[in-house]
Amino acid sequence: MPNTKLRRLVATSVAVVLGATALAACGSSGGSDDDNAADSGPVSLTYWSWTPGMDKVADLWNKGPGKDEQITVTVKKQASGDTLVTKILTAHKAKKAPDLVQAEYQALPTLVSNDALADIADEVDGVKDKFAEGVWQQTTLGSDAVYAIPQDSGPMMFYYREDLFKQYELEVPKTWEEFAETARALKKKSPETDLTTFSANDSGQFAGLAQQAGAKWWTTEGEQWKVGIDDAATQKVADFWGGLVKEGAIDNQPMYTPAWNKALNTGKQIAWVSAVWAPGTLTTAAPDTEGKWAMAPLPQWSAGENVTGSWGGSSTAVTTDSKNKSAAAKFASWLNTDPAALTALAKEGGIYPAATTAQTSDAFAEPPAFFSNQPDFYTQASEIAKTTAPSAWGPNVNVAYTTFKDAFGKAAKDKSDFGAALTKMQDDTVADMKKQGFEVAE
Amino acid sequence: MTSARRKSYGVKGAPYAFLLPATTLFALFFALPIGYAIWLSLHKVQVKGLGLGSGARSEVWAGLENYTDALTDSELLDGALRVLGYGAIVVPVMLGLALLFALMLDTERVRLAPFTRLAIFLPYAIPGVVAALLWGFLYLPDVSPFYFVLDKLGLPQPDLLDGGGLYAALSNIAVWGGTGFNMIVIYTSLQAIPAEVHEAAKLDGATPLQIALRIKIPMVAPSLVLTFFFSIIATLQVFSEPTTLKPLTNSISTTWSPLMKVYQDAFQNGDIYSAAATAVIIAFVTLLLSFGFLRAANSRTKQQGEAR
What we know:
The complex is a heterodimer.
Chain A: H1 2-33, H2 35-40, E1 43-49, H3 54-63, H4 65-69, E2 71-77, H5 82-93, E3 100-104, H6 108-113, H7 133-136, E4 149-161, H8 162-167, H9 176-189, H10 203-212, E5 218-221, E6 224-227, H11 232-246, H12 258-266, E7 271-275, H13 278-285, E8 293-297, E9 310-318, H14 325-337, H15 339-349, H16 356-359, H17 377-385, H18 397-414, H19 418-436, E10 440-441
Parallel strand pairs in A: 1-2, 1-3, 6-10
Antiparallel strand pairs in A: 3-9, 4-7, 4-8, 4-9, 5-6
Helix pairs in contact in A: 3-15, 10-11, 14-15, 18-19
Chain B: H1 2-41, E1 43-47, E2 57-61, H2 65-72, H3 74-106, H4 113-121, H5 128-139, H6 145-153, H7 163-191, H8 195-203, H9 208-219, H10 221-236, H11 240-245, H12 258-268, H13 272-307
Antiparallel strand pairs in B: 1-2
């Protein structure tokens, strides 16, 4: 008998505890679901970024404007590029993505298509004018929505060894035709030396070069995607580089290898088609050549033109999982348009800001240390940045980029037809989109 | 009566209680993930229209579509063939060397045995990625001291990062890293052979070579089977060496080995469904090969036992 009593007591108390937990759960979920309530009180946001020193820039916010607005931002350092995209998508699947994320421009459609990024058009009214048209358009995906705020950009440029160009009596090429002539002339004078290499291990470079030629890889027509990876402009670029590799005018080995570093450092390769961030890479890859390089605009497809592509660059986006979207958007606008924030970003993170006014700010009065011989480095850079051609990204850039690495890597190795590699890139990309169920126009 | 029944009940329950931790861990960290992978492999993502905005993406039942796609994908088959080619070099060379070293260490007139044993074993302690990076530097003509010496001597310089050379280069890393471990396994079982067996053979006039071939090798056959079994599994799962060497050359594609394809699909192309299907196929093939081999080995040992 006493046993029964005890059992009943236990059962009752368990029920009470469970009930209390359920009530507490109801209470807490009710509170956090209410957006307005959360926005008015103190808010803390999490930001995934790979930019070095971003925590210091966030501290500026937390001690300054963020303090007044009661918005605290915590930076969590992440791996860059594709790795982070995968991580964001995984977190989003569990509805646990951070409030703010850093994303490369070409990753935005993928993220939007997975419903991971929030439309912040209403919160960032008037920010648009601070950026070059071609840069801003990448964050809207051609719609009225705004999915991110541009942070840094990577206008492409031509880097060359000034001393060796003099030594080999070479002119800085103004057109791609002259570029090919320069490569051949160099081979004649010094067969062991290459002007540059065609590398298949960074798809961004090829995408930027195609963009300069006027390629539009992904466009939309009504409710259909149109994939133009093998359009005339890209074919022209592929044939050009394929031709140079085939005749042996340039090298065909990948970049960023110990061998490549050595070739740059010892003057075995004397030029590099790169972007505004190249000084940083050259500092570590070719430390002995400090002060010997110079930067010039990218060669053009026809004389007198003035267009460049972009390679790299990223933006700040607010996720759909964020419970404080407007607070997050406020921070994102401050981070990428406020002069103090941009100066700190340039100093701490070494980035080249997308905001046009920042490109000529005090932070960029001096050239990078590696280019001390070119005092107007950043003045020229900001002029070049204005000529960036618009780009057109689609929802499976990752697949196109992977196919590029494999198909062009093989073509470069075999010195075979780059056109065929480009066709494979187009076919694989379209096939992947169709497999996922996207409507693709033929 | 009552107490006796209670006692027997307690004894009956005990095995289950003892099994519980293992079963729980097995279910949570083995069966459940495998089940989830199989579930994923039977689904796919379906996008509507442009696929932008919310609700444009849904997970739908795909049936065996991912499996048929994977099995008809020539890239996966090519990858499997590449790995077979690689395994055909690695397994015999590595086990041959391991056996040879073990037998040499086991002879009576060996000097510095502990040191040699350690020296051969040491590469096994170096992580695969570090080993691949290290060898990668040595394979690149522009930075490798080997090529420098070959160049100075006017000897031909083979391209180790292309064509057949690439297989040799990759196998070399695996052999360098794996021989020591296998040698220790074989050596340990050599040490377990009773001394009177060789002594008897020696008294009968057997040479050391004959002792090795007729006595030692047959007696360590079980450990040879074991090391062979481990080596096959390791070969089928080759991933870190080609992945580490990939940035150094155009010859290694992102889908060079089947596991690299799984990684590529899941983490670069964001298609975990296809990746799950490919992973299940690889697991199945590995299982089939390993058990097939074990059965064959077992039936052989049984036959021998009966013949004796």
